[in-house]
Amino acid sequence: MASRAGPRATGTDGSDFQHRERVASHYQMSVALKSEIRKLNIVHLLIWVLIAAQVTVSQLSLVSHKVVASPYQWEYIYLLSIVPTVFSFLALPRNIISYLVISMISSGLFCMASLIYGSMEMFPVAQQLYRHGKAYRFIFGFSAVSVMYLVIIIAVQVHAWQIYYSKKLLDQWFTATQEKKKK
Predict the structure, then answer these.
(1) CA 68, 74, 80, 81: dihedral to nearest 10 degrees?
(2) Rounded to an integer, what distance in angstroms lies between the CA atom of residue 133 and that of residue 144?
């Protein structure tokens, strides 16, 4: 029995820990990767809620278009990016490989592709803003193209890390299943 302050068990000097069981490294890595993916999923949900709020406010005309600009086309496509996050949240608790694979593929399609399209769609407006200093769309007084490029930069990083960590997690899960098959 381990005791920090009490007497040591008789007949031991503390060096007999080699026989104790340890958690396999792939299980430790799996827990760490799941934690990182959950954090990234929450950040993605925050980005998604902000874009969904902009689209909703604009479509329902809740405030003037001078306060919140009408959304770009890519923002409607990006709203589908909730799908990979849902599959990711479903895959993590029970190690469902197929859901994680669907999450990775749909993240590439709905998230990364829409962000690339968005950066290309907004490029002429950004070019006009930085060459001539003229902005025609605003979000709370800031240039809409500048705000949305900032969102795109953050979202690309979040989704790239999601895909990377998901791939590493799949590798860990496959390692665990291969070790079970060997036994």
Answers:
(1) -90
(2) 13
**pTM for this predicted structure:** 0.81
Unique residue bearing structure tokens 């902000």: 50
pLDDT at residue 1 above 60? no
Residue type, 49: V
Instruction: List b or e across 24-57, with b for residues whose CB sees 16 or more CB atoms inside 10 angstroms.
Output: eebeebbeebbebbeebbebbeebbeebbebbeb
Give alpha helix (H) positions in the chain: 25-59, 73-78, 82-94, 97-106, 113-132, 144-182
Other C-beta atoms closer than 10 Å to the C-beta of 110 total 20
Average pLDDT, the chain: 87
Sign of CA pseudo-dihedral 46, 52, 55, 59: negative
Q: pLDDT digit string (tens) for 3-31?
A: 566 666 666 666 666 666 777 777 888 89
Report, as an integer, the average pLDDT of 60-70: 86
